[in-house]
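Exercise 7b. Backbone tokens:
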């Protein structure tokens, strides 16, 4: 093989490998996101398993949320944030170089309960679900839909970004991770309610 033919062959190899590598990275993103969504789902459901009616509605203070209100906030946020990603964020352009933080730092910031945030009005609990069972059913359906979106979307989720009020710019893959991180954050809040003074024994 001549030198020219060899360099041409190498060039073709590089061109062919680049999309394959990008596809592999995208698939790893999808797999990790789906696994994180399943992990955080399981922990949330475990946190409310066996909670009695008295424990469900107990409020540590007059202004604090009960477990029922925290769970409702998680359930409302699930479908609301996914809808925002699909309808409002995917048309947006990609983040600039260096504009987003690493995924692990996004998740770490989300679950850091030392920093408190005020929930927007549309995500505040309003007693939407009459029972815990109906809330769990609707939450599971919404989480299934989120995972299905992650696994099947044709969009490059790294190629779109939107601002977050506390975390600045997140790409849409990170917004998906935020859904899981958000439920993880508030699962920790449920654990805090259980340790509050006066929490019912049963």
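Sequence design result:
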């Amino acid at each position: 093989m001549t030198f020219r033919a060899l360099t041409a062959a190498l060039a073709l190899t590089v061109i062919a490998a680049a999309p394959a590598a990008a596809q592999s990275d995208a698939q790893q993103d999808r797999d990790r996101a789906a696994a994180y969504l399943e992990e955080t789902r399981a922990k949330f459901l475990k946190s409310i398993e066996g909670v009695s009616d008295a424990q469900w509605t107990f409020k540590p203070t007059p202004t604090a949320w009960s477990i029922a209100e925290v769970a409702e906030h998680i359930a409302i946020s699930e479908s609301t944030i996914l809808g925002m990603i699909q309808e409002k964020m995917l048309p947006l352009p990609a983040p600039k170089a260096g504009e987003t933080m690493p995924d692990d730092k996004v998740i770490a910031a989300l679950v850091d309960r030392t920093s408190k945030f005020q929930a927007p009005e549309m995500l505040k609990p309003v007693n939407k679900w009459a029972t815990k069972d109906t809330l769990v059913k609707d939450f599971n359906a919404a989480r299934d839909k989120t995972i299905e979106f992650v696994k099947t979307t044709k969009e490059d989720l790294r190629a779109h970004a939107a601002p977050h009020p506390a975390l600045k710019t997140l790409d849409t893959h990170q917004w998906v991770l935020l859904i899981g991180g958000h439920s993880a954050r508030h699962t920790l809040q449920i654990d805090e309610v259980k340790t509050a003074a006066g929490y019912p024994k049963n």
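Instructor comment: Residues 3-18 have pLDDT under 50 and may be disordered. Helices lie at 3-48, 53-57, 67-89, 103-110, 132-152, 172-194.
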